[in-house]
Write a structure and sequence with these properties.
The complex is a heterodimer of chains A (81) and B (763). Chain A is of the alpha+beta class and 81 residues long. Chain A has one domain: Ubiquitin-like (UB roll) (Roll), CATH 3.10.20. Helices cover 28% and strands 28% of the residues of chain A. Chain A is built from three helices and five strands. In chain A, strand 3 and strand 4 form a beta hairpin. In chain A, helix 2 crosses helix 3. The radius of gyration of chain A is 11 Å and the shape is globular. Chain B is α+β, with helices and mostly antiparallel strands and 763 residues long. Chain B has a domain of 145 residues: Aldehyde oxidase/xanthine dehydrogenase, molybdopterin binding domain (Aldehyde Oxidoreductase, domain 4), CATH 3.30.365. In chain B, a hairpin with a 6-residue loop joins strand 5 and strand 6. In chain B, helix 11 runs parallel beside helix 19. The radius of gyration of chain B is 27 Å and the shape is globular. The chains are: A alpha+beta (81), B alpha+beta (763). The interface between A and B is large, with 28 and 55 residues.
């Protein structure tokens, strides 16, 4: 199970939970798993969040792999000027 | 002076990357042949003008356009009623997320105007004079409302509320009342309160910045035509032709594929051209009039109606041990978003402590709407504000501890394996090397004179990858055309050509780089986020590799050998079959000349979503001299060092460092939006909005730190454009602190502020 750490933008959808485990082999799996556990969170993460999987940033990359012991951070999508 | 630091023993086998050829767009730029947004005229075009609100906050009761429409020569008058009603929807057409309804309401006001300069109506006429007379004949009835400009005032419970539907997000519970606070963002680790209470040394401070504009030389401009068949054409300067296409289509409610956008040359963007203002209006006027419509903003309009960046209030608490280890940090930031939600406070929250290993921290960011223009991205959006607060506080901590400011940063510096405050674990970063580059510089050791001070500050930016496209076409004579999906705002054409030449093994002079329009190259996100040389460059390199594969196959066909017996070396096909050792290499020109007989044109296009961007770190060193009689502060020496991965064209990279430093110096010393009591901008022009010019500044020295190339890019590229605007605000402020012996925590560091600080110190 991947360990997910969510920033505060996600908390309204997680009931305040900031860390939880999700079974996922890919980012797409993770989004589905988040939605199953916290309805609406998967879509929110898909649209608004970037993620760091074991330290490497992934944005809009559904098929990036996630290992069973991965640590996944969710944080706002990165823009720039 | 420019230096480049490489890791000792690093192998340098590149022929083109890392050299400094003449820029491919140089002749066009210096001769005036380059065509910018206002340079194209279409047959039968009209002149478009916008009527703007004189009020910072008002309800629109009615708009009577009849007198304007009746004026001879006026071909169309439009208002918000001519645009479709759009629901709140997150758009991803640019790079960061954007609310469609907010964008549309910013392009043209509907029920309310939310800032001085907000667009209310537009006309198209046969001349500028008639268009402007028509604007004067439009009658708008307003019910003026109380307004709020300053962020802390906008957060008060009794503040005028801009949007009755805005309820703060990011709180534990949804508030019962609407407010101007759009969102709260928090990042935490460890136990700040306990660590702060136990710290040997504690300090706290409040730092403030004012809204500043990106200050691009070229005003927003476009010409647009709505065809009778519904096909739309837009020519204009922006940071993304695909962004313009998507946003125009969505604001106007037409299919995206019906909009064709040709990117003009761009006279500066710095993030401010990552959204649309004129383009949907010009298209709507064209639809209403049946003519192409050209629109060019005045400088006054640029200041009043296009995005500055936020002004902000940054509260910082730091706790440290006596030996200089920062054990606790709390940063709370309140940012002006302007008329609609979306300040860069989240990015500021993620970046403000990104240079420091701190086990216990809390970072809070508040996004607050105000009756000011909707902010737009500005180079490392948000990061300069956060860094101004934290780097100023770190400087105070160094003074309190009696430590050299670089030593304090070295003690607490992140390195490979450190965890960033927003989550990821850093890999392949060279922050420590960048600190060392400044420590080892001649500048750091140079003596100072009277009334002079030396300031240090660091800065971080994520850098981005994302969606990009690149194409490589081989001409009949072996020449190469490289098509980039991204407007060239900082030298990306040169970088694309150099990476293609390096990959193909051909002379750079044989490569012509161009920027494609929306119908001739695959999709790309905007040129922004320091992403283009990394992501679009990756697409170009992959396309060049595919071209090489095609060339190997063509050579194999001609030699009647398997393709795996053909290697590509130094721009030629070489047969590696030992039984055919007498075959002479086939040049690119030969293979291109025979292309039609070996299968047709040789070309490749690659579209990708690039992951693996590597962050950048900068350390700046500023010497400043103060005139104690006038309070004027002048930067007399400045050095910027940066972890750049590998510079494709070092002169361009140095230019990025110099440009970012100069913009940051202007932000620190001079620039600010000034509003009168009625909420109207008082300094909407370059005479009163003081940006630094060449005579104000010394040459900005640079040190490119190339000790740690990005392993996830073929040439080691890290983004470079945004980091250099992050440290200067604090570098200048810290230099001032050390020059006059007292902290001035509020930007800009204008002569009256400095004089007041000197007088307060003497008192």
């Amino acid at each position: 199970m991947a360990r997910v750490v969510a920033c505060s933008d996600c908390w309204p959808l997680t009931g305040g939970a900031s860390e939880f485990n999700v079974e996922a082999a890919t980012v797409r799996d993770l989004i589905r798993g988040l939605d199953a556990r916290f309805p609406g969170l998967g879509d929110f993460v898909d649209r608004r969040m970037a993620m760091a999987i074991d330290g490497e940033i992934h944005q809009d990359a559904w098929f990036s792999p996630i290992e069973p012991d991965s640590e996944v951070f969710l944080f706002p999508k990165i823009g720039g000027g | 002076m420019s230096e480049t630091l490489k890791r000792p023993g690093a192998r340098q086998t590149l022929n083109v990357v890392g050299t400094r050829p003449i820029r491919p767009d140089g002749a066009d730029k210096v001769t005036g042949r380059a065509a910018f947004g206002a340079d194209l005229s279409m047959s039968g075009q009209l002149v478009g003008r916008i009527l703007r609100s004189p009020h910072p906050h008002a309800r629109i009761l009615s708009i009577d356009t009849s007198k304007a429409a009746a004026l001879p020569g006026v071909k169309a008058v439009i208002t918000g009623a001519d645009f479709p009603d759009l629901g709140a929807e997150v758009l991803a057409g640019g790079e960061a997320v954007t609310n469609l309804a907010d964008m549309a309401a910013n392009v043209m006001a509907r029920d309310k105007v939310l800032y001085d300069g907000h667009a209310v109506a537009a006309v198209a006429a046969i001349s500028a004079e008639i268009a402007e007379e028509a604007l004067r004949r439009i009658e708008v009835a307003y019910e003026t409302l109380p307004h709020v400009i300053e962020v802390l005032e906008a957060m008060r419970p009794d503040a005028p509320v801009l949007h009755a539907t805005l309820f703060t997000q990011g709180l534990e519970a949804r508030p019962e009342q609407p407010s101007n606070i759009s969102n709260r963002t928090r990042f935490m680790r460890g136990d700040f309160e306990a660590a702060y209470a136990a710290a040997d040394v504690r300090m706290e401070g409040r730092y403030t910045t004012r809204a500043v504009h990106q200050g691009y030389i070229e005003p927003h401009a476009c010409v647009a035509a709505w065809g009778s068949d519904g096909q739309c054409e837009v020519w204009g300067s922006s940071q993304g032709q695909f962004m313009v296409r998507t946003y125009c289509a969505r604001v106007l409610g037409v299919p995206i594929s019906n909009v064709h956008v040709t990117p003009a040359e761009i006279g500066g963007g710095f993030g401010g051209k990552t959204t649309v203002y004129l383009e949907p209006v010009a298209l709507a006027l064209s639809r209403a009039s049946g003519h192409p419509v050209k629109m060019v903003m005045s400088r006054d309009e640029v200041f009043r109606a296009t995005g500055p960046t936020s002004g902000g209030v940054i509260d910082v608490k730091l706790g440290a041990s006596n030996d200089g280890k920062i054990v606790a940090a709390r940063v709370e930031m309140m940012f002006q978003a302007g008329a609609f939600p979306g300040s860069p406070v989240a990015a500021a929250a993620m970046t403000c402590l990104a240079c420091y290993e701190v086990d216990n921290f809390e970072i809070v960011g508040w996004d607050v709407v105000t009756n000011t223009p909707k902010v737009a991205a500005y180079r490392a959006p948000g990061a300069p504000l956060g860094a101004f607060g934290v780097e100023s506080a770190v400087d105070e901590l160094a003074l309190t501890l009696g430590l050299d400011p670089l030593t304090l940063r070295e003690i607490n510096a992140v390195k490979d394996g450190s965890k960033a405050p927003y989550g990821p674990t850093y890999q392949n970063i060279a922050y420590v090397d960048t600190l060392a580059a400044i420590r080892d510089s001649e500048h750091y050791k140079a003596p100072l004179g009277p009334n002079q001070g030396r300031g240090v500050a660091a800065g971080f930016w994520f850098n981005h990858g994302g969606e990009s496209s690149g194409a490589v076409h081989v001409a009949d004579d072996g020449g190469i055309v490289v098509v980039s999906s991204n407007p060239d705002i900082g030298g990306s054409r040169a970088a694309m050509a150099m990476m293609a030449a390096e990959t193909l093994g051909v002379p750079l002079e044989r490569v012509r780089p161009v920027v494609g329009d929306t119908d001739s190259i695959g999709f790309a996100m905007v040129t922004g986020g320091s992403r283009t040389t990394f992501a679009t460059g990756l697409a170009v390199v992959r396309a060049a590799e595919q071209v090489i594969e095609q060339l190997r196959q063509r050579a194999a066909m001609l030699w009647e050998v398997d393709a795996d017996k053909v290697a590509w070396r130094a721009g030629e096909a070489v047969c590696t079959d030992p039984e055919k050792a007498d075959l002479k290499p086939l040049s690119l020109a030969t293979l291109a000349e025979r292309a039609s007989r070996t299968g047709g044109p040789i070309s490749a296009q690659v579209s990708l979503n690039a992951q693996g961007a590597s962050p950048g770190f900068g350390v700046h060193l500023c010497d400043l001299e103060v005139d104690p009689e006038t309070g004027v502060a002048r930067v007399i020496r400045y050095t910027a060092a940066q972890d750049v991965g590998r510079a494709i064209h070092p002169s361009y990279v140095e230019g990025q460092l110099q440009g970012g430093a100069v913009q940051g110096i202007g932000w620190a010393l001079n620039e600010e939006y000034i509003f009168d009591a009625g909420g109207r901008m008082e300094n909407a022009g370059f005479l009163d909005y003081r940006m630094p010019v060449a005579s104000d500044l010394p040459m900005i020295d640079t040190i490119l730190v190339e000790t740690t190339p990005n392993p996830l890019h073929p040439f080691g590229v890290k983004g470079v454009g945004e980091v250099p605007i992050v440290p200067p605000l604090a570098a200048v402020a810290n230099a001032l602190r050390r020059a006059i012996g007292v902290r001035v925590p509020d930007l800009p560091l204008s002569p009256p502020r400095i004089l007041a600080a000197l007088e307060a110190k003497q008192a």
